[in-house]
Amino acid sequence: MAAKIRKLLVQVDETRIEMGQTINPPTRRAVAMAVIENPCAGRYVPALDELIDIGEELGALLGQKCVAALGIAPGQAQSYGKAAIVGEAGEIEHAAAVLHPKLGAPLRKAVEKGAALVPSAKKRGGLGTAIDVPLGHKDAAFVRSHFDAVEARVSDAPRANEIVVAVAVTDSGRPLARIGGLQVSEIKGEDGLR
Fold first, then answer.
1. pTM, to two decimals
2. How far apart (Å, rounded) are the C-alpha atoms in residues 67 and 88?
3. How far apart are CA 91 and CA 78, in angstroms?
4. Of the candidates 118, 106, 119, 98, the residue with the CA atom closest to the CA atom of residue 162
5. Three-state secondary structure call for residue 4
6. Mean pLDDT by 10 residues, the chain (194 residues)
7. C-alpha dihedral sign at 96, 60, 165, 148
8. Going by DSSP bridges, is the β-strand pair 130-137/120-124 parallel, antiparallel, or unpaired?
9. Tens of pLDDT along 66-109?
10. Is the dihedral of CA 103, 83, 64, 174 positive or negative?
């Protein structure tokens, strides 16, 4: 493994009651986070291949951790998202290198299919910085019931030379979703949109 992981965290958030209404089955969102050493911290690196390869590793690892935490088969995953927080000795492009070129394919494999783009967010921050990991349906971007976000935060990261990488996976949409749009039962999953 190229990624030097200092810490790995997995959390599941489960909503059982919303606005006095019982949510059955509960909506569940898992977030897996890896705190990694940034091999490019503190210097300009023209080619970010090392970070791109780390993204590929983490897409598989964190996606699998989320699916396992939810206790579901990969095909039962409904939404996904990704995010990264770069410590102060890094640059935003380091987060982009981890998240964009190669992280998506192994994440899609971990959740079975995934025709839609994986929503993402990135920022720079210090210890305890939080980031909202955007969520969207994995097979059809126009499913409004799955537009959501989940907060990711590690109390002692990122240090100046680290990156916090987060992947989120859900087994449902928002609780009590009722704003219309494409329904899960109507998904074709051919173009990632509908």
1. 0.96
2. 31
3. 32
4. 98
5. coil
6. 94 97 97 98 97 98 98 97 98 98 97 94 98 97 95 98 98 95 84 81
7. positive
8. unpaired
9. 999 999 999 999 999 999 999 999 999 999 999 999 999 999 99
10. negative
Element (H, E) at 170: strand 162-170
Q: How far is it, in rounded angstroms, from Cα 37 to Cα 34?
A: 10
Local structure of 139: helix, strand or coil:
coil
Helix axes 92-99, 49-70, angle to 10 degrees: 60
CA distances 1 to 18, 35, 38, 100, Å, are 42, 14, 14, 19
- End-to-end Cα, the chain, rounded Å: 36
Asked if residues 143 and 94 have their Cβ atoms less than 8 Å apart, the reply is no
Q: Are 90 and 38 in contact (CB under 8 A)?
A: yes
Q: Looking up tokens 């720079």, which residue turns up?
A: 124
Tokens of 133: 């990991």
What is the secondary structure of 78-137 as a DSSP string?
-EEEEEEEE-TTS-HHHHHHHHSSSSHHHHHHHHS---S---EEEEE--TT-EEEEEEEE
